[in-house]
Amino acid sequence: MPAPSALDLTVAVVATADALLRESQRLFRPHGLTAAQFNVLNLLADQPAGLSQREIGDVLVVDRSNVTGLLDRMGAAGWVRRRDDPADRRVYRVTLTPAGRRLWARVEPRYRAVAGQVAGGLTAAARAQCLGALRHMEQAAGRWTLPAERPAPG
User: Rounded CA gap, 152 and 126, in Å?
Assistant: First the structure.
């Protein structure tokens, strides 16, 4: 059997990401959450001083305008709060509210258990190798250049 190509690997990563996102909805939906909202809760859970909207966008790799809408919905649900940053009036610090922290505390252990089911069959060495490869691919995806288009035949 020939070694998988870069295309094979990329297609498998995208298919896996799609499957994880689709199946995560079964866990998050009963709590009124989306995967993106859970990612924000999870990101803010260990940041008592909060993060700026830009920092959230950078970590989640989403556009700033998408972060604004996401945080607007989460703020309306009472899960996050925006406050002026005392060091920079142009920046908001986003923190979890008590309700957001309670929601995260309910969902996170279940998410951790599901992650254990998904990756638990791999050895520690395989998980480390896979994580390294995925991080490499994530960084490379942020630097790719599009090849020149070839003229259509005919």
Answer: 43
Backbone angles phi, psi at 77, to 5 degrees: -80, -10
Contact 90, 56 (CB under 8 A): no
The Cβ of residue 26 has, within 10 Å, a number of other Cβ atoms equal to 9
**The whole model's pTM is what?**
0.82
> Can you tell me the distance from the alpha carbon of 71 to that of 66, in angstroms, rounded to the nearest whole number?
9
Let me know if residue 49 belongs to a domain. Answer: yes
With tokens 């298919």, the residue in question is 15
Q: What is the pLDDT of residues 55-99, one digit of tens each?
A: 998 888 777 778 999 999 999 999 999 998 777 778 889 999 999
- Distance in angstroms (rounded) separating the CA atoms of residues 148 and 62: 26
**CATH number for the domain that contains residue 57:** 1.10.10.10
